Amino acid sequence: VADLSGTLVAKTRILRIVQLRDKSYLILTDNPEQLVRFALDWSNPRVIAKGGSGKGKLNGSAACAELPAGRLVVAGSGNFPIQFFDNNGRFLALADWNNPVPQGGWIGSALAVDQRERIWVADLTKSVFRRYDITGTSIDTRPFSSPVSRPVDMAVTSDNILFVVNDNGRLDMHDLGQE
């Protein structure tokens, strides 16, 4: 059991914990909003991204995941719904970087990465799942099915089933097929 009482996350609310490919851990917290990286044995906590406004700053973050080669993706409701960082927290890009329309104006509440390294983000504003490739280029959107209300967490299985946890505790499954 890890005792985090003496660390940077001791007096904050933990939103997400992700074990990275190198076996270290990434914790997304709020108040203060930050991404904190821990070694495998939960030692050496290091803040790699902080709250604020503007590109590369966390604001309303709700979910995070690791992409190939150690890149990190964060979804939220503030500055920009989807931002990419390297594994040391250096800002790399925004999703929809190639779109002339600004990315803001929607709320990313949950995200998952599938076996083909596509990023799925739940958009609460438009009640759709947005799908991106690993560069942040939009692929398409799909409407939430009728029972989905407010996704708070998502995961994609190796057989391409999207599991969605809603804020009411309901677990929904969506077959993504051979996409």
Polypeptide structure, described:
The chain is mainly beta. Helix content is 0%, strand content 45%. Strands 1-2-3-4 form a four-stranded antiparallel sheet, with no helix packed on it. A hairpin with a 4-residue loop joins β10 and β11.
Summary tags:
179 residues; mainly beta; four-stranded antiparallel sheet
Topology (SSEs and partners):
Blueprint: E1 13-19, E2 25-30, E3 34-38, E4 46-50, E5 61-66, E6 72-76, E7 82-85, E8 91-94, E9 108-113, E10 119-123, E11 128-132, E12 138-143, E13 151-156, E14 161-166, E15 171-175
Antiparallel strand pairs: 1-2, 2-3, 3-4, 5-6, 6-7, 7-8, 9-10, 10-11, 11-12, 13-14, 14-15
Cα-based radius of gyration, to the nearest Å: 16 Å
The helical percent reads: under 10%
Q: Give the rounded overall mean pLDDT.
A: 86
Coarse morphology: globular
H and E order: EEEEEEEEEEEEEEE
Terminal-residue CA separation: 39 Å
The fraction of residues in strands falls at: over 45%
Number of strands: 15
Largest sheet: 4 strands, antiparallel
